Amino acid sequence: MKKIILSVILFGFCAYNLGAAEIKTAAPGENAALGQLLEQPAANPQALANPPAPAAETAAAEELKNDDRYWITVLVSDRQARTKLLELGMDIVEVKPEKVSGFVHKDTLPVLQEKGYKLESRQTIYEYAKQYLKDFPPADSAYHNYKETTELLNALAAANPGLASLSSIGKTIEGRDIWCLRLNSSQKEETAGAKPAALYVANHHAREHLSNEVALGLASWLLGHKDDAEIKKYLETLDIYIIPMLNADGAEYDIRTGKYRWHRKNMRVNADKTIGVDLNRNYDARWCTAGASHSPYSDTYCGTAPFSEPEALALKKFIEARKNIKTLMSYHSYSDLILYPWAGLGTPLENEKDRKVFEKMAKAMAGFTGYTPQQSSDLYVATGDTTDWAYMTAGIFAFTTELEGRGFYPGAGIIEHAVTNNVKAAVYMLSVTDDPYKLTR
Questions:
Q1: What confidence tier does 62 reach under pLDDT thresholds 50, 70, 90?
Q2: How far is it, in rounded angstroms, from Cα 182 to Cα 166?
Q3: pLDDT in tens, 148-197
Q4: Is 14's pLDDT higher than 60?
Q5: Nearest to residue 237, comparing CAs of 165, 317, 324, 318?
Q6: pTM for the full predicted model
Q7: Residue 309 to residues 78, 216, 246, 281, 316: CA-CA distances in angstroms?
Q8: The CA-based dihedral angle spanning residues 356, 361, 363, 367, taken in that order and rounded to the nearest 10 degrees
């Protein structure tokens, strides 16, 4: 995973080009660029979203032989059944019309059988992993670990002192800084801002390394295009915050041995000695009342209380201290979706005006990515979610993007494609951050 920092910067500025559907800048006084781009059909992500499966390793990482999780497929066809599976401890990864697949702890298997769920298939995570395991270095060396992410963010800030500044919003449970890159032409680091703000945050879940790449790619692209009329306008009139790696401990643990571990949670050592809390079930938004588990061994474990985890607490304090944040994007993988509240309720958002804004923004961003826009709970109800909390607490128009890919480790070849279309969607979000309600007028 060794990279020369200059090469990284050049990669960030140049490799994420937008090709034939490049975001064009408007001439002074014009604002047609994004409208023109919306009319273009989104690139079909499937060609790169479903690359050939990587060659199997001769043996999976030894520690996975002792992992207590199974990969299972369960026959269910409705949201209520999927939500109950989450509460029983299943980490649902893939949703299809008549079944779901994901990870469960071995102790959950008899519970599912007692509840009458029919398993189509099951295999140990070791057996499952043998199909997909490959080294982070060198096969996926294009991905950035924590050290490389930190170096790139520092380099971007140093190369753009008039626009970019870097600060830590807090520490992870293992003491790593949670870095935030701020893009603002007049204010730096932690000084209070009055401009409308947009927040992009990634890597809530450890194994979702592609989300870190999208956030880094967005930061690099915006600074690489800082002189374009449209981007310059946003840098002058908005506060832009980018947090690429919220769960740095988990991301590092997932690749520590040079083999992927399919780790989702943070690195909290629970009372029963299991590892981790699901950060995206730890927010105080109907916390742990549906679609989350109270079992520490579960991948959807909600923790002992809302904001029990320093990573979620750091983001909470960050948002609460910045009343100017109007829009938020939380990057995850994988499902090709753009989701909006509610996640924790199976009913539509009660505020019709806000619901229309969410729907219009999601549809527009889906026009760039080719993903499907929908309410989060259309999949299943999941409480303690970041976006629900941000909207409930601060009225932020908060979204979750589930990135493309055939799995959590889709290879390096997908990065450019994922970054390209998600940069377009992110820039669209900037275009409405000054006043999202203008979409309803």
A1: low
A2: 6
A3: 999 999 999 999 999 999 999 999 999 999 999 999 988 887 787 889 99
A4: no
A5: 324
A6: 0.84
A7: 32, 24, 11, 10, 11
A8: 160
Burial class of residue 414 in the structure, from the number of CB atoms within 10 Å of its CB (0-12 exposed, 13-18 middle, 19+ buried): buried
- Per-residue pLDDT band for 307 (boundaries 50, 70, 90) equals very high
Query: How far is 428 from 441, CA to CA, in rounded Å?
Result: 17
What amino acid is encoded at 407 in this protein? G
Radius of gyration of the chain (CA): 21
For residue 388, the tally of other CB atoms under 10 A from its CB is 25
Residue 402 falls in the annotated catalytic set: yes
Contact by Cβ (8 Å): 170, 319: no
**Contacts for 289 with CB less than 8 Å, ≥ 6 apart:** 344, 383
- Domains defined along the chain, listed by start: 5-52+136-440 (3.40.630.10), 62-129 (3.30.70.980)
Tokens describing residue 261: 């571990």
Q: Is the pLDDT of residue 137 over 80?
A: no
Question: DSSP assignment of 172-222, as one string?
Answer: -TTS-EEEEEEE-SS--TTS---S-EEEEEE-SSTT-HHHHHHHHHHHHHH
Catalytic residue among 208, 252, 402, 404: 402
Q: What are phi and psi of 347, to 5 degrees?
A: -110, 155
The helix/strand count (H/E) of the chain reads as 14, 12
